[in-house]
Amino acid sequence: MTIGLFRSIFLPLIAVITLSACTSNSPADQRRARDNMTERLSQIPTVDISSRLYSQAIEMKRNGNCDGANPLFYRLANRGGGFELAQYHLADCLLRIATPSITNTDWLEGLIWLRRSAEAGAPEAQGLLAHLYATGPGDIANKTEAAMWFSLYEKNPARKKPGFSYALTPAQQAAIIKALDAETLAKGEALANQWQSTIWQPPSAGRLAPEAPRSEGGIDMLQPQ
User: Fold this and answer.
1) How far apart are CA 124 and CA 94, in angstroms?
2) 69: closest CA among 97, 37, 103?
3) Rounded to whole angstroms, how far apart are CA atoms 194 and 215?
4) E-only strand ranges, the chain
5) Which residues cross the membrane (predicted)?
6) What is the spatial distance between Cα 209 and Cα 213, in angstroms, rounded to a whole number?
7) Rounded to an integer, what distance in angstroms lies between the CA atom of residue 110 and that of residue 41?
8) What is the block-wise mean pLDDT of the chain (225 residues), using blocks of 10 residues?
9) 198: nearest Cα among 179, 171, 180, 221
């Protein structure tokens, strides 16, 4: 029997029985009994389904099982705002599994999810997107985009919050900096100063279709430099 079923059916019944037993007591005693029961009900743990799914998916991903984790990440990522970290992990898994090319629908889908997470302000996604644009294949490499996302990643205050654990590695940061000259970095910083976050909201539930839009947040993300 689930905790939710126990809480929704049996605990109210117990409360009624308890209060009924107190009918011979004074109103003050009945009020204390009612308050005590309310406090007990509030202390019963509830199961956060989203947190449970996320924990299961993360554990699978850590064990190298992105194929098993992706269906769970999809369920969370498709909820839109508030699930940017699930979108990031889904993108990371798809980009790891698929061959890097915009002609590969799985890899393209990973890029789209990464953009959604980055556009919402997730520093994990912004850093990975900067690295992808700086070092990716010829049909996706975009130095200006790389510079913009790297600037946003560097300045993102969320990186300093507890729980941030998916930072760019020193090698990734070095690769980004090596790929960008001073002029491109300046252009990217100017774009970053004008950037505004955009929260993606799903038009409908379900897995992203292969014919998903090729741009997010008004920026053509597939146009090579």
Assistant:
1) 15
2) 97
3) 18
4) 215-216, 219-220
5) none
6) 9
7) 43
8) 43 45 59 60 57 92 94 93 94 91 89 96 95 88 95 92 84 95 95 94 57 32 33
9) 221
